[in-house]
Amino acid sequence: MARNETYPGVLKTPYSKWHRKQHSGIAYTDIDKISQCPACGKCLFLADLIFNANDQYKSKPFYTKRAYLEIATALQIPFFEIYYTTEGKEDNGPLESLSVRRIAPTEGKLHHIDLDNWLQYLEFKVQEHIPVCQSKDYLLKRVTEENDYNKNFLRKNNYVKILSYRS
Description:
With 167 residues, the protein is of the alpha+beta class. The chain is built from 5 helices and 5 strands. The protein has helices at residues 14-20, 62-75, 115-129, 136-144, 156-164; strands spanning 33-36, 43-51, 79-86, 95-104, 111-113. It has a 5-stranded mixed sheet. The N and C termini lie far apart (47 Å).
């Protein structure tokens, strides 16, 4: 965790502020994103979210990434760096664009991806997990329930098709 709070996107929670003031014999990293199954909670991938205020796509130092790599390796899940840009280049503005780089299990190239394509990847990761999910009935209930969140669920039938198939 960076001690200097002037970097864009630096976590500024009460805990992180307190921790920054402590001695140099301790350290921590915050886990930015753990994609998981919305029904059973299984971890699908790990990601470090990096605010990309000036289009540098700068990766963090190895010692910062090490914790992510160890966790991803232990869980046998991918680890990504996700660079995000917001409207007006303010860290708290509406999301404008994403660029994604896979770090593990093998490092990949940086991909600039529109938000709907990223949403499709997130859906794919859940659908890929469905055959081994221990909570298929609950997932089917979640994706088919009538609520404000599901009104614009464009690819709902992809889930329903997989979840309705019983071998």
